[in-house]
Amino acid sequence: MKARITVTLKNGVLDPQGKAIEHALSGLGFEGVDEVRQGKMIELSLADTDKTVAEARVKEMCEKLLANTVIENYAIEMVE
């Protein structure tokens, strides 16, 4: 079983890397991009076979290490 975790900055948190991407896109001629927010995707291969147990473990991993929940949101997608 695999888990995909998408981690993004919460709204209101400054995103300098997103702003740099936005300016670079504009410089390359891609107009009409109003705001860029960047994040990260983490994929885990898990030995668990029970989806509920695996998702609970991944949530705990996110809360303890994979996401800074003060400034970041995360979403978990379980893939069998």
Explain what you see.
This protein has a single domain, classed as 2-Layer Sandwich (Mth169, Chain: A), CATH 3.30.1280. The N and C termini lie close together (5 Å). The model has no long low-confidence stretch (mean pLDDT 96). It is built from two helices and three strands, in the order βαβαβ. By secondary structure, it is an alpha+beta fold. A three-stranded antiparallel β-sheet has the order 2-1-3, covered by helices on one side. It has helices at 16-27, 51-66; strands at 2-9, 39-45, 72-79.
What is the topology?
Elements (H helix, E strand, L loop, with lengths): L1 E8 L6 H12 L11 E7 L5 H16 L5 E8 L1
Antiparallel strand pairs: 1-2, 1-3
Number of helices: 2
CATH class: Alpha Beta
Estimate nothing, just give the exact number of structural domains.
Answer: 1
Main β-sheet, spatial strand arrangement: 2-1-3
Q: Describe the main β-sheet briefly.
A: 3 strands, antiparallel
- Residue runs with pLDDT of under 50 for 5 or more positions: none
Percent range for β-strand residues: 25-35%
- How far apart lie the N and C ends? 5 Å
List the helices and strands in order. Answer: EHEHE
CATH fold topology: Mth169, Chain: A
The tally of strands reads: 3
Helix content: 25-40%
By secondary-structure content and strand pairing, the structural class works out as alpha+beta
| Estimated radius of gyration | 16 Å
Overall CATH architecture? 2-Layer Sandwich
